[in-house]
Amino acid sequence: MITHHSSLESFYEQLEYVQKNYTHHGLKATDFANVFVGGLGGSGIGATITKSVFIKKSPVPIEVVNDYYLPGFVNEKSLVILGSYSGNTEETLSMFEEAIARKATIVIVTQGGQLMEKAKEHGLTYYTIEGGFQPRMALGYSLGFMLRIFAELIGENINESMQVAITTLQDKSRLKDAAAGLEKKFQGTLNRRYTILCDASFYGVAVRAAQQFNENSKMEAFVSMLPEANHNVIESYYGQLPSNFIALNSNSNERVSARFDFVIALLERENNKVAVFETDGLDIPTMFEIIYILDWFTINITEPLNVDPMEIANIISLKDFLSEV
């Protein structure tokens, strides 16, 4: 079985696979009124991150939904991109049937299952992911293909960025050292919940980190996005809090950066621990680097927390329950 550790050790190979196996879909964003992306969990987060990367460049609206339904605006003028690692995610299959009924253009990203069978049946464009992984540890495949799909839609060539990302991820010792530094930063408070503060550019990466804390570390984790969180959540930041904080600031807006400075100082003044990732914008290699560091951190702390990142007993129990309903 492919473990989480081995998945991360070879993570760059997932991007190499995407680069080798991506084929052009021949679609343009301007051919559509809107683009809808659907997926759940480890398969859906790639869509959320991709939206964060391309939302400012897209000439048409991009909507991401992690549910059973399609928004009311989806019709024959829509592009629907659906991702499911197993190909059997019931919510994604529900969205597929709606997309077919509404005569939308459909593109699929999957490892197999019913979704691939349906893609073949309807003669749709689809991209195949390698099997053997837990979905959340196959992000390189799902996110890699999503990035390539969207880049082609808007006519942007990201080949060089993808290659730089591969080289960056091959520098595993440096990135694992950074993850170890986080463990040292939060030494003594590893079993607290985790709050990820982010700006809009980092939103998808922040959600990914929270999901990894949930599934890998079995810890509660939440995302607070600035500036919105400064209008409400900040009023809960009094005294020492039962949370560790991770700040992800792309410096894409100087006013938001000023807000980060204030909030970090406020939290640290009350003896809260804050790990800060600050970048000059958010390019694809940097994005993958931070995802990789945070992934390792959520795996590293499973040993001191005495949990098994491979076990997902509650999710399996839920699926068994739903199969009987």
- Spatial ordering of strands, largest sheet: 2-1-3-4-5
Order of SSEs: HHEHEEHEHEHHHEHEEHEHHH
Average pLDDT figure: 95
Give the helix/strand class. Answer: alpha/beta
CATH topology of the largest domain: Rossmann fold
- Could you say which overall geometry the principal axes of the C-alpha atoms support? globular
Please give the number of β-strands.
9
From the alpha carbons, calculate the radius of gyration and give it in angstroms: 20 Å
Give unreliable regions as ranges: none
| Biggest β-sheet strands, sense, barrel | 5 strands, parallel
Strand content: 15-25%
How many discrete structural domains? 2
Give the name of the CATH architecture of the largest domain.
Answer: 3-Layer(aba) Sandwich
CATH class of the largest domain: Alpha Beta
Roughly what percent helix? Answer: 40-55%
Provide the descriptors you would attach to this structure in a database record.
single chain, 325 residues, alpha/beta, Rossmann fold, 2 domains, five-stranded parallel β-sheet, four-stranded parallel β-sheet, 9 strands, 15% strand, globular
Secondary structure elements and their pairing?
Elements: H1 4-9, H2 11-21, E1 34-38, H3 41-54, E2 62-65, E3 78-84, H4 90-101, E4 105-110, H5 113-121, E5 125-128, H6 139-153, H7 159-170, H8 172-185, E6 193-198, H9 203-215, E7 221-225, E8 243-249, H10 254-269, E9 274-278, H11 284-300, H12 302-305, H13 313-324
Parallel strand pairs: 1-2, 1-3, 3-4, 4-5, 6-7, 6-8, 8-9
